[in-house]
Amino acid sequence: MSTAASSPLLDFLRRSYPSTVSSTSSETDIAHISHTIFPDTAYTENEKVETTQWLTTSSRLATPDEDEAKHAERLGSLNIHLSTRTTLLGTKPSIADVALYFRLAPALRTWTAEERTGEHGYHNIVRYIDFVQNAPLFGLALKAEDKVEIDVDDVKFVRKPVDPKEEKERKKKEKAAATASIPDGNNQTSLLVGRSKDQASKKSSKATAPVNSEPSTETTQPSTSTPNPPFPKKEKKQKSAKTAKPPAAEPALTPSLIDLRVGHILRAIPHPNADSLYVSTIACGDPPDTANTSLDESTGQTVRTVCSGLNGLIPLAELQDRKIVAVCNLKPVTMRGIKSAAMVLAASPRLAPGEEDAHKGPVELVNPPPDAVAGERVFFEGWQTGEPEPVLNPKKKVWETLQPGFTTTEALEVGFDAKAVEPLKTEEAGVGKLRTKGGVCLVKTLKGAVVR
Questions:
Q1: How far is CA 64 from the centre of its chain?
Q2: Which DSSP string do the residues of 175-201 spell out, in sequence order?
């Protein structure tokens, strides 16, 4: 006989949605029941992923022992996110809204008036909590005494809204000032494009001369003046043959062409459409608005979404809030509906000749030094000269050519063996260790492994 899974959140969901959340439902099922609770709402693949990410964020907001500064940072990011949204997904309801309400409402009860609606308060979170607990859209099983008491009229600090009339008058004055700075068109002759000043003035004088409405009585005499001789034709200059620019020199084949960086996995979830994949949110030190990145609302960091075939090989718990090494200049690929913008380096046993890869593992992530920071460059000793390509050209197969040289040593250090790469076999260099400025990258147990 199966034992009913229980937790405060599950109990609350069962009370509110008894026909949807059964006694056998578990915490892992929560992410997939939004459409059942809100059948009239359609969710895109990205919205499904975002829902799962918000479920993770809400659980962290409810952690009592979280660092105070970090907790305030999360609340600030959430408050900014809700400033232009009715729900976490914008306007669509989801199970993440219900979970966030359940986990955040107890804390809001203890907030002071200043924390709620003061100058530095969380106005948008307060408004959001009040909406979720009262909106028929969510239909939460709450008695009046269970709801957070919120006085919508008790606002300690109000930012002055823009007065439409004042804004219109301001723009009118700016326009008048700009017009006054332009010279008067009546005192200036406009030049016609393609004509000299003299030609333009003649054209203008003809246009403004008075027109005699009476027919002319003068007889036009034929001209007896000698016509002007035609201008001599200019000789055409021989066009000099253009010298073709030599093609840009191809960069030398070297591991430094690969953009290896320390990555910080903020969170990871199972791929909604593929049993063998995880979807990770990884900070790689990218500047804001970098191509193929997004803003992580819960942390304010610029992040990449990365799909990895590690589901079933590495426990999901090991992919939460941890440092890894990422390949950041492979061309992004869409994997079962979600674009992946990097690759996580991992080691697996080297196959014997003729052996087929059954993808059964073991697999171990490459670990950067403990003090490494997201975005820090990772390089192979002896191969650090040169800059990575912005994006590796798939047709040139740079990654496919160099990857066979990625390996691990007897000391569990990740390294690059040039002798395993056909074009570099003549190089005298030994195995160059993979490192940051602070130390060498390691794996747990796999020696002589393949790293990819």
A1: 30
A2: HHHHHHTSPPGGGSPPPPTT--HHHHH
State which amino acid sits at residue 367.
N
Please state whether the predicted TM-score (pTM) of the whole model is above 0.70: no
Phi, psi at residue 127, to the nearest 5°?
Answer: -60, -40
**pLDDT tens-digit profile of 348-389?**
999 888 888 777 889 999 999 999 999 999 999 999 888 999
Note the pLDDT tens digit of each residue in 279-321.
999 999 999 999 999 998 888 899 999 999 999 999 998 999 9
Q: How many angstroms separate the first and last alpha carbons of the chain?
A: 44
Q: Is 316 helix (H, G, I), strand (E, B) or coil?
A: helix
User: Rounded to the nearest 10 degrees, what angle do helices 45-61 and 68-82 cross at?
Assistant: 140
Are 126 and 78 in contact, with CB atoms under 8 Å apart?
no
What three-state secondary structure class fits 359?
coil
Tokens, residue 393: 């050209």
Amino acid, res. 422: E
CA-CA distance, 151 to 384, in Å (whole number)?
61
What is the Cα–Cα distance from 30 to 36, expressed in whole angstroms? 11
Question: What whole-number distance in Å separates Cα of residue 327 and Cα of residue 291?
Answer: 15
DSSP-assigned beta bridge partners for residue 304: 282
Q: How far is CA 41 from CA 47, 86, 206, 294, 410, in A?
A: 11, 15, 71, 24, 55
- CA dist 61 and 53 (Å) reads 13
Please state, in angstroms and rounded to a whole number, the distance separating the CA atoms of residues 267 and 73: 17
Sign of CA dihedral 274, 278, 281, 285: negative
Contacts of 231 (CB under 8 A, 6+ apart): none
Find out whether 132 and 98 touch, Cβ atoms under 8 Å. yes
10 Å Cβ neighbour count for 100? 26
Considering the chain, what is the average pLDDT of its residues? 82
- CB contact set of 304 (below 8 Å; sequence gap of 6+): 263, 281, 282, 283, 284, 286, 292, 293, 294, 326, 328, 341, 342
Provide the 10 A C-beta neighbour count for residue 224. 5
The CA–CA distances, whole Å, from 283 to 68, 73, 323, 325, 326 equal 22, 17, 9, 11, 10
Structure tokens at 253: 């084949």
